[in-house]
Amino acid sequence: QVHLEESGPGLVKPSQTLSLTCTVSGGSISSGGYYWSWIRQYPGKGLEWLGYIYYSGTTYYNPSLESRVSISVDTSQNQFSLTLTSVSAADTAVYYCARDRTIAGTTLSYGMDVWGQGTTVTVSS
Amino acid sequence: DIQMTQSPSTLSASIGDRVTITCRASQSISSWLAWYQQRPGKAPKLLIYKASTLESGVPSRFSGSESGTEFTLTISSLQSEDFATYYCQQYNNYPKTFGQGTKVEIK
To answer: b/e for B52-81, b at 16 or more Cβ within 10 A?
Structure first.
C-alpha cells in the first residue's frame, strides 16, 4: 500500500522560499504510471492544484504560479519536492502531495488516489 | 482556467436521505471529472473518476452522472460517515481546477 508523507518547515518568512518534500513508501516513483502532484488548501478550504512531476522529470505547473514554483524528483530517495519562491501571506495553506494516475499516451489522468496527510505552512514574519 | 461551480454550498440532511450535489463546468470537459470527499482534518479521498466510475473500495451508495457540462454526485442513503465536504475536480484542461466544495451537515 503506497503511503505519502510531506515534510518541511511550518513557518516561512515573507519573501523567502518555501521548500517541502514528499516521501513515497510502499511503491517506487520510478515505476511510472503516475504524476506526482502538489495541491494546497487555503484556510477558507478552497483547493488549488500546483503542479506535477513524472518520474522522468517532466513537469507541468499551474500558470498562476509558474514563475515561482518548481517541482523536482529524487528517484534514489523515492521523494519529490516543491519549491515556491517569494512567498507572501497569500501562500499560507495546507500543502498536500498526491499520486495522480496517468492514462497512457495522453496527458490526462484518472484522479488523485493517494494523498499525504498534509502539512500546514504559515507565511509570517 | 475552467471554472467549476458546485451547488449547494451547504446541505443539511438526515441519515438515510438521498443526497445530490451538482457541479457545473464553465466549458466542456468531456467526462474528465472526479469527486472527492474530505472529512475534517483529513486529506481529500477520491470517490469517483471519469464522471461515473467508482473508485475501488468506495461504497456503492455513491454514484456519479453527467449531462453536458453538469455533473452530479448522489449518495443514495446517507450514512453517518458521509457527513463531510465534497469537491469536484476537472482534469480535461490544465490547470486542473476544483469546485468550491459542498458541506453535508447533519439536519
So the answer is: bebbeebeeebbbebeebebbbebeebeee
Reduce the DSSP state of residue B80 to 3 states and report it: helix
Preferred mutation among A59, A100, A115 to probe B, highest tally of B CBs within 10 A: A115
Span A83-110, pLDDT tens digits: 999 999 999 999 999 999 988 888 888 8
- B62 — pLDDT class (breaks 50, 70, 90): very high
C-alpha cell at A77: 530517495
Average pLDDT over chain B reads: 96
Nearest CA in chain A to B57: A113
Taking the C-alpha atoms of residue B45 and residue B39, their distance in angstroms, rounded to an integer, is: 9
